[in-house]
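## retry 2 of 3
previous attempt timed out at serialization; input unchanged, resubmitting
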Amino acid sequence: MTNAGTNLFGIALGELGSVLARVDESRVDAACAMLAGANKIVVYGCGREALQIKGFAMRLYHLGLPVSVVGDMTTPPLGVGDVFLVSSGPGETSTVLTLMRVAREAGATVLLLTAQGESSAARLADFALLVPAQTMADDQGPEKTSVLPMGSLFEGALFVLFEVMVLKLKAITGATSEAMRARHTNME
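## retry succeeded, writing output
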């Protein structure tokens, strides 16, 4: 490993720490309470954000929560008492906005993760959790704030945020590590 590589790791980790330090923990707690109290949870994200939110869906399942991913053939319809958890860093993704409207029309609560608190998605959401990180929408020119490319800072922050939310949800639900492991697939 070179010093340049070590320095890049340090810079990237510092950027992630800075973003996560600005996430409002009281809003994280409120989001966790919404998820823990939902009849059903359906999640959605685009691109690499989808990878992060699908990983979180897996952990929600491990916790024993009723979760599905948009696009899976077994995703149930949403209604009153359900939560649509959606990620849109830029907050202007057309598919996200469309699905948010569908969820709201069905009576579900829309819980948004975004980097843009004044975006169309933030205005449409019932509850927005701000993750103030560079996304692909602001990764060039004077707006660029991260050494990481494109939306990687937002995506990395989502991963860590989701893992912390798992810990908080574990405490709320009383799920044990043993119960979580027992729900892990045996089809690997």
